[in-house]
Amino acid sequence: MADAWGGMRRGSVRCLTSEGFHRMAYVEWGDPANPRVLVCVHGLTRSSRDFDVLAQALSSDYRVVCPDVAGRGDSDWLRNPALYVVPTYAAGMATLIARTSMEEVHWLGTSMGGLIGMALAAMPNTPITRLVLNDVGPVLSAASLARIGTYVGKAPTFPSIEVAEQYVRATSATFGPHSDAEWRFLTEHVLRRAPQGGWRMHYDPAIAVPFLAGVNGEDVAMWNVYDAIRCPTLVLRGRESDLLSGETAAAMQQRGPWARCVEFPGVGHAPTLMHADQIAAVKEFLPGGEK
What is 9-140+219-285's CATH number, 3.20.20.80, 3.40.50.10990, 3.40.1110.10, 3.40.50.1820? Predict the structure, then answer.
């Protein structure tokens, strides 16, 4: 379904790190002059296109901007793997927000995208005035980090899209039930042609370097960041999630921004926001989306 402004548009911004500039690509939906902007940011090994279904559903109410985080999708890879960390990503997102020319934006982040959103929303004078955290919070479970560490940066070259899809289905089984067409969609947008033939995952394998360095068998806690957030916050949780525990989600409703929480049965880490009940939860929370 195309929106009234010609469907999806592509763009990019140049972001700065201590080692130079890199290009961050994004796609956007909806009226480019709409002052109501929603930034949607994907998880560790995913891409901007994860939000196609949600963005189309919200495009009559929002200008929806979905970036490929550095090292993923159509964005540049970074020369120094040590820069694949949240502070780098947050700085790039500040550049992207400046591109929208808006003083305020709403933010939806899945997993890593939610961590970036938390970091930005906790800062003084933040431009984020409404926050959706999709299956992520201030405590990352050691079990989930270990599970992700078994595959991040280690994907083989695939001889066909069909073989790649079986890999995506296996590593992303926690997304919950999806149709064959949905699994194909979730596969096609995280693949690129490999130089030697066949297909590879769309991201720089070096994103695994700082991630694996932080996996030490212990939970990662960031309550000080969460408690500094003051904007209205919604937490979406897969009821079977191994990254965001029910205990953490409950605590998030009693401190910091006192988040609202919606759980989805039969889903782990993380809801893909492709299904009607998940989209409805986002629409209900975002101003204008409830119409």
Answer: 3.40.50.1820
Query: Which pair of structure tokens corresponds to residue 38?
Result: 């929603």
User: What confidence tens digit (pLDDT) does each residue in 204-225 have?
Assistant: 999 999 999 999 999 999 999 9
Q: What is the DSSP letter of 76?
A: P
**Tell me: the pLDDT tens digits for 59-83?**
999 999 999 999 999 999 999 999 9
CA–CA dist 201, 43 (Å, integer): 14
User: Of 37, 16, 137, 23, nearest to 87 (Cα)?
Assistant: 16
Round to whole Å and give the CA distance between 47 and 189: 7
Q: Provide the percentage of residues in the chain whose pLDDT is more than 70.
A: 97
147-181: burial string, b at 16+ Cβ within 10 Å, e else = bbeeebbebeebeeeeebbebbeebbebbbebeee
